[in-house]
Amino acid sequence: MVVAKPKLSYEESRQKRIEENKKRMEALNLPQLSQALRTSPFKPSPKKQSKPRIVEKQLVVVRRSSRVANLPSPVYKEVVVERVAIPRRTSKPRDLNLVYASEEDRAEALEKAEKLESSLGTDFPIFIKSMLPSHVSGGFWLGLPVHFCKTNLPKRDEVMTLIDEEGEEYPTIYLVRKTGLSGGWKGFAVAHELADGDAVVFQLVRSTTFKVIAL
Question: Distance between CA atoms of 164 and 193, rounded to whole angstroms?
């Protein structure tokens, strides 16, 4: 027959657990360690002190070229620039005394030249040239119709003689590559007072001779 042990009260159980824990602590030497921790003075770890940042400034001598190293430093002067209104350029004729023909005058002269051309017949090659500023001023260069030159004029540079209505002769230089009259043409133009808009009839009466009529 088993006799049941009497049930311990709460206070008795609590006291029993305390005694058991005390024995375990004594076995692990925990009371002495706890006491040592209480009595030892607390020493905080020293705080790391940050060093102040030192910025070192140095004066650096700029390296100068050996060619100018010994020369004095340049002195700069203040320059005041004034804006000047420049008049707008307009195209001007090279000859200020040149009179420009109107379109009506030019057309009238061409009409007269065409009537003269038709009256001269077709026995000799003919062409009409309306005068421009470059023909009667400045360089006095007279370009001739390319087709007429290739068909009727010499194949090399030649002296072409111009004969006016009075029978006066004017030698000129014909340049085959430029198909025009150069030296000597100025003398003819000045002598006959040719102006812008005039019409001139050229009739080739011989291989190197033109009969010229200015209108």
Answer: 13
* 50-59, 100-109, 133-142: range with lowest mean pLDDT: 50-59
Q: Which domains does the chain have, with CATH numbers?
A: 103-214 (2.40.330.10)
Tell me the C-alpha distance between 168 and 127, whole Å: 20
Identify the weakest region by mean pLDDT among 14-18, 92-96, 111-115, 162-166: 92-96
Q: Cα–Cα distance between 94 and 96 in angstroms, integer?
A: 6
Q: What is the pLDDT of residues 27-78, one digit of tens each?
A: 766 666 666 666 655 565 566 666 666 656 565 555 555 555 566 665 555 5
180-181 sheet: strands from edge to edge: 126-130, 199-206, 209-214, 158-163, 169-175, 180-181, 142-143
Distance in angstroms (rounded) separating the CA atoms of residues 67 and 167: 78
